[in-house]
């Protein structure tokens, strides 16, 4: 007979004692459980002890989690700017077979370490700080330590000490872990403390681990208030961060990039523009392209995300011009517009212009603007009143005319000499192309918290957007000629150009030259071939007999997909912890047992790709899983609802509800692909249908392959929509062979 649901069988260890095997009643008060355990080992004062996991993070088992008491003082227990919601208890997470350890209670340990870090003995103080850095990851211990005004002692060690060795590294690590729980506001830090942290970043002769921790502290600090942002921006110069980016230590490089991104995201639009201009002058793009993207070390997920953000921030500098319509009364903007005409038709209008009347000159200008491809040639500024793309289109046209004057003149003069109906309108094409590029590159959209999709060629070129435009506007002219297009075909041509650009960018070319080569190779005839292949593939699968065959094949292929999903869960995935404040660098791993009965998970270190299942201490029996939640339904997305919720995080979030609804294992998938595979696999374990878009894609691919194999013998044979009629039965069956006569 199975044990009751609220009873779990566990082992409890203690140094120097024989382990106890007990049945833990979850309804029994934790104090009573501790007393029974202590009585079995004849230990007095049970209130001085606590249980914690023996493996993994060694978290304390708690009945309830309390906020730091009010008497802790403003420096110790000020309300956090975005307090993290806390679970009431974690004892319900204990599973059958868990191994716990009897240890000193959190309040006793906090008191001991609080005294230890004030010791005059350097060895005792260092050991206490090392232990503090380890235990501070536990929320219960952190509360006890903070309630004793422990952070004040941490501040003192940093502010008054001159040590830059092991002791300081443990101190900064402990401080980082304590602040991670969001019990204390970053705004309460003193200027002396902050400047001390800044000094470690600015020092040359200091241990790399201390600089990494200092950079991480400043990164956390910057987004919390504008005053802290201004202080850090003033004390840690961009030149200093660029120096850290040039080191060979990948972790130090990563933390420097993290602080740079935090500064850029927190800055105002004007400050961000100034910072990006300065970085451009320092050739940061070329450095990143050479020393980070093409370095011998593989690019990690975290660095890929920061490069994506840097690319997004840089492209978003175009947003203001993109959303600004042309002002026909602005002399500066009118001069830019006139420069387009003068560059293209300078030789034609230069000599006789002085002899023309005002009316004749206006007529000549209108004719030249019409040749340039403006719809409203008498007042071309009207064409640029549409925003987006606004003035960004004008900027691109001027850049093209000034930086590639030969290509510009060739484009305009070549088309102005064609018949009216076949000329490719330069201005109209430029305006529409600018809008297409803004949409493809997501100009003006907020940065995702998890995306890693950056274009390597972006960092290999200054003025990336303008240079990309120069390549693509010439592509428009080339495609226009290949399609023998007229003015009525304008939208069709731009649709083909969008497809050419999108398909080429999907190949992730490493340079603009490579992009130019590939996008020009993808000519109109190639696009037609691709479209025809896709259309034929779709048409051949729409015949009625083929649809019936598809339905018969589906169950077998769905089972194949289910097995693949479960196999992926058995291999496991590395997940990142993301708090409401920032992108985390903490990792945890989850995988399904080979017998598909237990989910194993636990924290892992950076660089661990596939930890063995034995090293993952936490478990959830599949039988205890009740429900799968996704997106906004997940508790960890509801916890962040007070801040600006990021759409991408919602699309990657899912949770497993187990035992009772209050207890969930929360996930944020690294990619949409992993999200689909995990949610499908968990639905299979729960006996439900797979619902992800990836399942539909995989099913279509498998069905397509299977149908092609089945229909190989019918190539070039038309399949009728209905089966041929079954002939009537014959009038007699005399043609049948009588086996009975043969046997006689």
Automatic annotation (TrEMBL):
Its GO biological process terms?
Answer: actin filament organization; apoptotic process; cell motility; phagocytosis
Which InterPro entries does the UniProt record give?
ARM-like, ARM-type_fold, ELMO_ARM, ELMO_dom, ELMO_domain-containing, PH-like_dom_sf, PH_domain
Q: Which domain of life is it from?
A: Eukaryota
Looking up Pfam families in the UniProt record yields: ELMO_ARM, ELMO_CED12, PH_12
**Is Ribonucleoprotein among the key words of this record?**
no
List compositional bias (Low complexity) regions by residue number.
Answer: 70-85
Q: What functional role does this protein have?
A: Involved in cytoskeletal rearrangements required for phagocytosis of apoptotic cells and cell motility. Acts in association with DOCK1 and CRK. Was initially proposed to be required in complex with DOCK1 to activate Rac Rho small GTPases. May enhance the guanine nucleotide exchange factor (GEF) activity of DOCK1.
Protein known as: ELMO3 protein
UniProt organism field: Menura novaehollandiae (superb lyrebird)
């Amino acid at each position: 007979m199975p044990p009751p649901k609220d009873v779990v069988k566990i082992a409890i260890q203690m140094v120097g004692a024989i382990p106890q095997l007990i049945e833990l009643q979850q309804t029994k008060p934790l104090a009573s459980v501790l007393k029974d355990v202590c009585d079995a080992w004849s230990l007095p004062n049970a209130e001085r002890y606590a249980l914690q996991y023996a493996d993994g993070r060694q978290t304390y088992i708690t009945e309830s989690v309390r906020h730091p008491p009010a008497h802790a003082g403003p420096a110790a227990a000020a309300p956090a700017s975005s307090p993290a919601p806390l679970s009431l208890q974690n004892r319900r997470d204990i599973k059958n077979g868990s191994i716990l350890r009897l240890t000193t209670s959190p309040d006793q340990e906090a008191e001991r370490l609080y005294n230890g870090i004030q010791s005059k003995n350097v060895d005792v103080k260092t050991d206490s700080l090392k232990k503090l850095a380890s235990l501070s990851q536990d929320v219960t211990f952190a509360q006890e330590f903070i309630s004793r005004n422990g952070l004040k002692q941490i501040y003192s060690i940093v502010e008054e000490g001159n040590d830059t060795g092991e002791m300081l590294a443990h101190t900064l690590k402990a401080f980082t872990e304590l602040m991670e729980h969001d019990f204390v506001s970053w705004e309460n830090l003193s200027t002396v403390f902050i400047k001390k942290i800044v000094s470690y970043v600015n020092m040359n002769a200091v241990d790399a681990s201390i600089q990494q921790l200092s950079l991480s502290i400043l990164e956390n600090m910057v987004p919390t208030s504008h005053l802290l942002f201004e202080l850090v921006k003033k004390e840690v110069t961009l030149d200093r961060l660029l120096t850290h980016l040039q080191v060979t230590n990948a972790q130090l490089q990563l933390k420097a990039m993290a602080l740079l991104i935090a500064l850029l995201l927190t800055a105002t639009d004007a400050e961000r523009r100034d910072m990006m201009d300065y970085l451009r002058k320092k050739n940061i793009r070329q450095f990143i392209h050479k020393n980070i993207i093409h370095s011998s070390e593989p690019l990690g997920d975290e660095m890929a995300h920061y490069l994506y953000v840097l690319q997004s921030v840089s492209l978003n500098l175009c947003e203001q011009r993109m959303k600004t319509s042309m002002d026909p009364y602005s002399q500066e903007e009118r001069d830019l517009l006139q420069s387009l005409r003068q560059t293209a038709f300078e030789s034609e209008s230069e000599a006789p212009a002085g002899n023309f009347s005002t009316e004749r000159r206006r007529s000549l200008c209108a004719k030249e603007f019409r040749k340039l491809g403006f719809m409203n040639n008498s007042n071309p500024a009207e064409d640029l009143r549409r925003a987006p793309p606004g003035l960004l289109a004008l900027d691109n046209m001027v850049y093209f005319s000034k930086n590639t004057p030969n290509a510009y003149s060739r484009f305009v003069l070549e088309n102005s000499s064609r018949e009216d109906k076949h000329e490719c309108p330069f201005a109209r094409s430029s305006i529409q192309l600018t809008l297409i590029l803004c949409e493809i590159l997501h100009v003006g959209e907020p940065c995702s918290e998890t995306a890693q999709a950056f274009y390597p060629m972006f960092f290999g070129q200054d003025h990336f957007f303008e240079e990309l435009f120069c390549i693509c506007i010439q592509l428009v002219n080339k495609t226009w000629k290949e399609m023998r297009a007229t003015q009525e075909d304008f939208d069709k041509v731009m649709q083909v150009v969008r497809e050419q650009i999108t398909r080429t960018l999907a190949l992730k070319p490493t340079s603009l030259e490579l992009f130019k080569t590939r996008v020009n190779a993808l000519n109109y005839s190639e696009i037609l071939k691709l479209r025809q292949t896709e259309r034929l593939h779709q048409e051949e699968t729409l015949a009625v007999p083929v649809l019936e065959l598809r339905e018969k094949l589906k169950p077998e292929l769905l089972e194949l997909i289910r097995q693949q999903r479960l196999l992926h869960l058995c291999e496991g995935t590395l997940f990142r912890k993301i708090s409401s404040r920032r992108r985390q660098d903490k990792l945890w791993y989850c995988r399904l047992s080979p017998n598909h009965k237990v989910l194993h998970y636990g924290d892992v270190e950076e660089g661990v790709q596939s930890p063995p299942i034995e090293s993952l201490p936490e478990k959830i029996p599949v039988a205890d899983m009740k429900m799968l939640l996704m997106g906004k339904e997940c508790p960890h997305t509801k916890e962040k609802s007070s801040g600006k919720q990021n759409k991408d995080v919602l699309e990657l979030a899912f949770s497993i509800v187990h035992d009772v609804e209050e207890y969930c294992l929360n996930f944020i998938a690294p990619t949409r692909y992993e999200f689909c595979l995990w949610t499908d696999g968990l639905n299979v374990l729960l006996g439900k249908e797979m619902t992800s878009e990836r399942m539909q894609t995989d099913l279509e691919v498998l069905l397509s392959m299977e149908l092609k194999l089945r229909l190989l013998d019918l190539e070039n044979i038309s399949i009728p929509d209905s089966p041929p009629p079954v002939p009537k039965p014959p009038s007699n069956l005399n043609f049948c062979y009588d086996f009975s006569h043969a046997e006689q």
